[in-house]
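Intended use. Records like the one below are meant for learning the mapping from a protein sequence to its folded structure. Do not use them to infer anything beyond what is encoded.
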Amino acid sequence: MSAPLSSRRSFIKKMAATAAMSAAATMFPGIVFANEQLVGVTDGNLEWKKGPCRFCGVGCGILVGVENGKAVAVKGDPKSSVNKGLLCVKGYHQTMCIQASDRLTHALVKKNGRYIKTPINEALDLVASKMKSTIEKHGKDAVAMYTSGQSTIPEGYVASKLMKGAIGTNNLDCNARLCMASAVAGFLTTFGADEPMGCYEDIEHADYFITWGNNMAEMHPVLFSRMLEQKNKRGAKIIDFATRTTRSSTASNRSILFEPQTDLAVANAICYEIINNGWMNKKFVDNHINFSKGLTKIGYGMEDKFSFKDKPIKINFDEYKTFLEDYTPEKVEKYSKVSAKDIKYLASIYGDPNKKVVSYWCMGMNQHTRGTWMNNLMYNIHLLTGKISQPGNGPFSLTGQPSACGTAREVGTFTHKLPKGVVMNPKHRALAAKIWKVPVERIPSKPTYHATEMFRAVDRGDIKFIWTQVVNPLVSLPKTSRYRPAMEKESCFVVVSDVFPTPTSDVADVILPASWHIEKSGLYGNSERRTQHWDKMVEGPGETTPDAWMTIQVAKRMGYGDLFPYSEENHVEEIYNEYRQFHEGAKHGMAPLEVLKKESGAIWPYVNGKSTQWRFNAKYDPACDNGKDFHFYGKPDGKAVIWQRPYEPAAEFPDKEYPFWLNTGRVIEHWHTGSMTRRIPVLHKAVPNSYVEFHPEDAKNMGIRDGENVKVISRRGSCILPASINKRGLPTKGQVFVPFFDENMLINDVTLDAFCPISKEPDYKKCAVRIEKA
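Structure written out for the chain above:
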């Protein structure tokens, strides 16, 4: 017997009230949620089903309360080691959007400028025939798929198999290119292997947390709450190093502000201090480190068909030490706006052998025209001091999306990646061909289009067919206004799979109704290499269909049925078991599905029934086999690389015509482009629209009042937003900040499409704008 209606109403009211209190609590200083959201609430006959959160890369465990086939509540999973029962305000409300009145429930096909409701099988027939005819007429590189770090592991796997193994094109990239590519390139160049070497348990061991350009209180609130707990319980210290004052700054022990782009110089100055003061761990460096430098003056990727290849050149320690002489704290102080005293303070933390330090970063370091370099420099600091791959000691790159690691990076939905390794490596192609049962010659040996270049190719007319899944590029791409007209042309056939209408679906020729998170089974991989599984919890409305199954159906219709022999009922399990073959062994073994079904995830490498929490350390990692304490087995000689990387100015910086820096990012209430969270009433009410933050002195000098509409103008476009003064965040003088979640205020029409030439990740954090009253 189900719970009485009054009981359910009480439950929902309690959830809403708790969430409102949680949201209010975020105002200062950070995010600390108590696991009391359900106290006194009658469950009735709710069935609680486990899974990971739909939103950020933290990968919180959730329990979804299902009653009469409906998801009526969400709570944090107390058995999850990630969040220990805690959730942020987005997590509490994540199921409230799926019943939105504008939910896409049936396929829509554009005919004579109007969308016509179409049976899903008929729509998939059309997608397959258009994809096939485009290949026949224009060649395989005229079709493309653009997917997401929000795709599940099976969804990413079948997309990669279709494009690279069946069709034979590397025209597959994903929106993780916009957020995690620099982290990938940084790991690969320094360690020869991707993904962090530590885990979230580092938080319980570290004496210092140093956040580099990362507002964790809003972007990764549950992890920040765990840091605050350690601050309060045992005196651990949080140091905020950023370009603007945020909620993270006010909750930290110390906040240090730097001029945009100069994080490169400050990191080098820290390394200078470590060596100059004798704080280097000489034994660790001698045994486990090589030194290299690469090309400099490498451009900013703004030209069409931009290509670049870094050329590592080995150097010795003395050459590296000489290079650092240009980065004394006193020299760097002059242009970074970080005092020599503060630089020396940061260096003293890293250099103290008796203090454990974890460095955290996310978009501030990655969305950077020198993002790969900046990641390398962070590793330099930890490698010089030997503070790496140990509990409480390590550099930790946080991901922004729920499966940017598990899907984009591990499965390989980047143009250059395969489910193991890269397309450029003959051995990696051979392994993929063997598992996929295709001729090895079918898998191209060269990458094609990364995300920005993919849409430039659409604009040029080189790509005639593009299928986007779980992604909203006409809100999220830099310099967005360039691509909208191209996608509207009849010369490019656009397919969009999504849960809700978006500005991207507005230009589609076919709109496919996707299943939401809990309406299908799936797997995600989070920031700490934790793979998590969930079973389907509720039925989706209408003809909504999992993205993986839609891809499989299109593949079969195109004649590739023998490569996609999966059943509709068990395709997630069948795909995951096939995918695990790529990673067998101690270096990257994936946990069996039966383990993931029982537990709240497992960290890879999963060896002998146990997660490997710290990689490259022989004490914890069974893959270490060189007889030494540490083995960086991604590199042939087992040694990591310290890179000589210089400071270079930003691609564009303020001048007389455009005197302000523009920085973009997120807020805690909204997820990326807002297509989900803006349909959750309590979150939409909390932050109903975007805004532009000013330093109060800049606003006063310009006569701008709080709430007054202003126009933000760059060399590429403009956007009208209300001014925000002395509210949530405080930019430095000469800087403005805009969240990008609002499709009605497209700040990415303004941003610059310059990118890191190595990772190809755009820089959303720095471009020049002017401000006018609207």
